[in-house]
Design brief:
By secondary structure, the protein is α/β, with parallel strands linked by helices. The protein contains nine helices and five strands; from the N terminus they run E-H-E-H-E-H-E-H-E-H-H-H-H-H. Strand 3, helix 3 and strand 4 form a beta-alpha-beta unit. The protein is elongated.
């Protein structure tokens, strides 16, 4: 069952750290999911409706925190990461930040610094989820198009006129108008400009115009 509200995943092989972080995050109203290793985290159920972030130890037996970051980066969706480390390693921290980490904190750290980092991570995740949800809705609309309607869409977003599209597809202009009407209705837009914006959000490529 999906968790409601913000959820913080904590991955650290030190049980005392997991306990203290869990108490801290619960004290400010977050749901907490603690794990003793990256392997345990990867094998877990992470279905959450609300925003999430991962508070991740760097050095752990088996997969390190950096290894886990690289694994998650290859996924379609990856929650924001906050690294915590007992060792001040500037190059490692810089590299982790370049790869998208929200923060890299050295133990012991101030609770306020960690909570601020978590707040920022959850804000970013909220934005990311909104974008992904919109892309999902757009792809569902695209899936409702027939092959010919989708092809018509790729010409419409080039800005071509109906008669130009008819020439390119070797069909009657009235047929193009019918396809155009159904495309606009199924995609839930009133103008080609809106259609272009939706197409760009899911990387739909315009048809190559060969008309004169």
């Amino acid at each position: 069952m999906a968790e409601e509200g913000p959820t913080i995943f904590v991955v650290d092989d030190d049980p005392s750290i997991r306990k203290s972080l869990s108490l801290l995050f619960k004290s400010v109203g977050y749901v907490v999911k603690p794990y003793s290793s990256a392997k345990e985290f990867l094998a877990s159920e992470r279905d959450c409706r609300g925003p999430t972030c991962l508070v991740l130890d760097v050095q752990m037996p088996g997969l390190s925190g950096i290894d886990l970051q690289e694994e998650l980066a290859s996924w379609y969706y990856s929650m924001p990461i906050i690294f915590i480390s007992a060792h001040a390693d500037v190059p490692m921290g810089v590299n982790a930040m370049k790869k998208g980490a929200v923060e890299f904190l050295t133990k012991p750290f101030e609770e306020s610094d960690l909570l601020n980092a978590v707040h920022e991570a959850l804000r970013k995740d909220t934005q990311t989820r909104a974008v992904l949800d919109e892309q999902k809705r757009i792809r569902q609309r695209l899936a409702s198009l027939t092959p010919r309607e989708y092809e018509t869409l790729t010409y419409l977003i080039t800005g071509m006129l109906n008669k130009q599209i008819a020439y390119a597809l070797n069909i009657a202009e009235r047929t193009v108008k019918a396809h155009r009407s159904r495309v606009m209705e199924k995609m839930g837009v009133d103008s080609v400009a809106e259609l272009v914006r939706l197409a760009e959000k899911v990387d739909v490529k315009p048809a190559e115009s060969g008309t004169e």
